[in-house]
Design brief:
The chain has 305 residues and is an alpha+beta fold. It has a single domain, classed as Immunoglobulins (Immunoglobulin-like, Sandwich). It contains eight helices and 13 strands. The strands form five sheets. A four-stranded antiparallel sheet has the order 8-7-12-13. A hairpin with a 5-residue loop joins strand 7 and strand 8. The model has no long low-confidence stretch (mean pLDDT 96). It binds heme C (4 copies).
């Protein structure tokens, strides 16, 4: 139940018989890639009833059976009553599941740490939007809940600003006419702006990272310089080892991009002496896990010497 409490809370009320079917489906899918098992497991997710009833009120208030709660509470249905409650329109509603969780037996589960980052960094730094503002109300996103897997959302979340200045670097005391004693170079400043309401990256894949990558190519397309930097959360177990599976992670080190802040990286690139034209490519990528990576931004600059 420690994982289902957010992923499929309906199982809290399931019968012993059904839980056995679920357990069997997990085994069948794992061992035989059984499609019937897959179908059952895929339906164990966060459904209408979970958000609009089961999790729609905060204790000590308890949801009534056959009532769907909403922020407006308007509309009629032959299947259920409709009631208005402000909780479902508040960030705390989402934070029930999108944050660190202390299981009833006291075990902490760090699947997502968004709630903590939202409250202690975004709101603390003056952020005013709710989860629903950005993820549902903005651009009529409604119930699509875009996140990591939607490149437009990633583009919106990470702003990029690149400044470059050409420099010719002379050896000490070299006369300006001596072309054998100089190198083309560049001063590069990259600003990454986190426009989201929480750190980037976050989420249950502890392998996630944002990668800033700079590559300089000469006239022939040969790589003459590279620079990079990565942003991520490190999940540690109780012994201080870095781990990647949610139930192993108990402590954090934070190298991510903080919200409402500009993270600035500066590079000084020195190129080979005979290069006259450099193409500088700056890329921002969102790496989810091995084999899954999204290109968020790519910017090209030509530097002439
Ligand atoms: C992850 C939680 C979540 C799930 C799942 C979900 N909803 Fe919602 N729904 C919300 C939230 C939050 C709002 C309020 C949005 C706002 O305040 O702008 C909402 C608003 C609504 C509204 C507008 C009515 C009102 O009073 O706010 C309707 C209708 C609705 N949802 C129907 C559904 C249906 C049907 C499903 C299943 C197909 C569903 N929802 C699944 C969270 C959810
Ligand atoms: C009952 C627990 C629960 C509640 C409440 C809930 N979520 Fe989620 N949410 C999940 C789970 C679990 C997933 C992951 C689903 C999966 O991948 O199987 C998810 C996925 C998402 C994603 C997609 C993440 C990605 O990387 O693609 C977004 C965005 C999101 N939720 C936003 C919200 C917002 C905004 C609210 C409040 C209106 C909310 N959620 C309320 C459990 C919840
Ligand atoms: C100011 C707008 C904004 C607010 C407020 C905001 N988000 Fe996001 N969120 C974004 C953007 C943009 C992204 C895409 C960039 C990224 O992946 O972090 C995102 C990504 C996500 C993701 C997927 C990435 C991940 O790390 O798993 C989840 C889940 C999510 N948000 C949930 C929430 C929840 C829950 C809240 C409220 C506690 C919230 N967001 C508040 C803008 C916002
Ligand atoms: C406190 C609620 C909560 C608990 C407990 C929880 N998760 Fe999650 N999990 C989420 C939310 C919310 C998301 C989706 C957004 C994200 O990745 O930030 C998620 C995402 C995931 C993902 C990534 C899905 C994807 O496609 O991006 C995996 C895998 C996962 N959880 C596994 C687990 C396992 C295994 C456990 C039990 C050890 C667990 N979770 C316990 C809330 C929870």
């Amino acid at each position: 139940m420690k994982c289902f409490v957010c992923h499929a809370p309906q199982l809290e009320q399931a019968s012993e018989k059904f839980m056995r079917e679920v357990a069997q489906a997990v085994i069948d899918y794992y061992e035989k890639k059984d499609s019937k098992a897959k179908n059952l497991l895929e339906r164990l997710t966060v459904t209408c009833y979970i958000c609009h009833n089961m999790k729609a009120l905060h204790p000590p208030e308890r949801p009534e059976p056959n009532v769907m709660y909403g922020t407006k509470g308007k509309g009629q249905s032959p299947f259920h009553a409709v009631k208005r409650h402000p909780y479902i329109g508040n960030s705390n509603f989402c934070m029930q599941c999108h944050g660190a969780y202390l299981a009833p037996d006291g075990e902490p589960i760090f699947c997502s740490t968004i709630a903590q980052s939202y409250r202690d960094h975004y709101v603390a730094m003056g952020g005013q939007s709710s989860c629903q503002d950005c993820h549902m109300r903005a651009k009529n996103r409604g119930h699509t809940f875009p996140g990591t897997y939607v490149v437009d959302m990633l583009k919106e979340g990470i702003g990029l600003n690149v400044q470059v200045r050409n420099v010719i670097e002379y050896k000490p005391f070299a006369p300006l006419t001596d072309h054998t004693k100089r190198n083309p170079a560049a001063v590069i400043t990259v600003d990454l702006i986190n426009n989201a309401g929480h750190r980037i990256p976050d989420g249950c894949y502890w392998t996630s990272k944002v990668i800033l990558e700079l590559v300089a190519l000469d006239e022939k397309g040969k790589v003459v310089w590279k620079g990079d930097k990565e942003y991520f959360e490190i999940g540690l177990d109780w012994y201080g080892n870095r781990r990647f599976v949610s139930f192993e992670v108990k402590d954090l080190v934070d190298f991510s991009l903080p919200p409402r802040e500009v993270t600035t990286e500066r590079f000084y690139a020195i190129f080979p002496r005979d290069v006259r034209r450099v193409e500088l490519i700056t890329r921002v990528k969102y790496h989810v896990k091995s084999g899954m990576e999204f290109l968020v931004h790519e910017e090209k600059r030509i530097l002439e010497y």
